[in-house]
Amino acid sequence: MFCRIDSFSTRIGGEVGSASRLLALLAGQRVELIAAVAVPDGPGAAVMHLFTADPVDLAKAARVERIALDGPRGAVLVQASDHSGALAAVLSKLAAAGIEPTSAFSMRDGRGRFGCVIPLDARPLEAALRALRLEMPEGSFGAARAVGSPVSG
Fold it and tell me: For the chain, which residues make up each domain, given as ranges?
């Protein structure tokens, strides 16, 4: 399965517990995140990238908790059967469409599935969705809980 999801980012302090405090605030507002990634942003600071299927809930929670968000931006969520080269296959399809992601985050669940989040700007995002829709054989991704704006493969 692959679909479009939204991403937002916010700066957090570099002190111990910054990320956990942010995530606890969002959990307290019942925000469901698909993924969260923190990256360094200079001395003593970091940027937390938050990926969600429901940008309205995240934006509402951010207002309530006074969290400054940058976004939304688009991303592609891929959930598929895990095998050697699974991520390479997805990135190869994007490369064939002339799309070179600047980042991709992937993980396997240990039960035969893997997931990948690929942040993209608007134009490459739409092209990526078209490339995956046109090039992924029917049934290549197992049925999973639908999130975001589904695109059938």
Answer: 2-72, 74-137
Helix 86-96 and helix 122-135, axial crossing angle in degrees, nearest 10:
110
pTM of the model: 0.78
Q: Does domain 74-137 have CATH number 3.30.70.260?
A: yes
Cα 39–chain centre separation: 14
What is the pLDDT, as a whole number, of residue 151? 33
Rounded Cα distance between 153 and 131, Å, is 10
How open is the CA angle 72-41-117, to the nearest 5 degrees? 45
For residue 42, how many other CB atoms are within 10 A of its CB?
Answer: 9
- Six token digits for residue 33: 């995140």
What is the rounded CA–CA span in Å between residue 14 and residue 40?
Answer: 8
Phi, psi dihedral angles at 149 (to 5 degrees): -100, 95
CA distance 153 to 1: 7
Looking at the structure, give the CATH architecture of the domain made up of residues 2-72: 2-Layer Sandwich (3.30)
Ranges of beta strands (E only) in the chain are 2-13, 33-40, 45-52, 70-81, 105-108, 113-120, 149-151
Which DSSP category does 41 fall into?
Answer: -
The whole-number pLDDT of residue 44 equals 85
